[in-house]
Design goal:
The chain has 196 residues and is of the alpha+beta class. 32% of the residues lie in helices and 26% in strands.
């Protein structure tokens, strides 16, 4: 893999960290189109005995590096514990991902570092589960969009092609009712929505 091709996707000076982290591993990296269900993915390719990481190519550089770090942590966990039973986002992954975030903290903008360090103490399985991280890294809000958490309970909003009514909060998500079907869904607090 020619890592120089990654440079346009990464923040300044991030490539050095990636080179060091992936050096011992046979890795295939794929930069994909935007996927609504995930930002990145790791898997072990068994027949080829290679690791594969995919990352959405439409992420801003800080988000791309953060997601890449998340997936590298999965690869390292697999390499170290391949014969043991470990949870995908369990203690082992949290430790490795947290250490990688601390090691590379200088890459992130000054205003984001405090949130990265806090996240590193107990990393979440998804970027959206940490509202401070999501707001800085993922959600490039357009003027007509709001974060779900900023809307009043009972407000109608559009997400994708559906219209919902915002309900009560449950942990990091809100119970929202699809107006057309009357079915309830749990929607992340940091989802960008269009207020109706």
């Amino acid at each position: 893999m020619n890592l120089e091709q990654l440079q346009p996707y990464l923040p300044k000076n991030a490539l050095v960290f990636i080179e060091n982290w992936i050096k011992p591993y046979p890795l295939t990296l794929k930069i994909t189109r935007s996927r609504q269900t995930k930002l990145g993915d790791y898997r072990k390719l068994q027949p080829q005995q290679r690791h594969q990481i995919t990352i959405n190519g439409d992420l801003n550089p800080d988000a791309f590096f953060f997601v890449f770090t998340h997936e590298i942590a999965h690869m390292m966990v697999y390499a170290q514990y391949k014969h043991g039973q470990v949870a995908p986002h369990g203690r082992e992954w949290k430790t490795i991902f947290g250490n990688l975030l601390v090691e590379s903290i200088e890459i992130y903008p000054e205003q984001l570092r405090i949130y990265i360090l806090k996240h590193a103490r107990s990393p979440k399985a998804s970027v959206g589960a940490d509202s401070n991280i999501a707001k800085f890294l993922i959600n490039d809000s357009e003027e007509h969009q709001d974060y779900l958490e900023d809307l009043e309970i009972g407000t109608h909003f559009k997400l994708g092609q559906k219209i919902f009514r915002k309900g009560e909060k449950r942990k990091l998500r809100y119970i929202c009712c699809d107006i057309k079907t009357n079915k309830n869904y749990l929607i992340n607090a940091t989802a960008l929505v269009e207020k109706m």
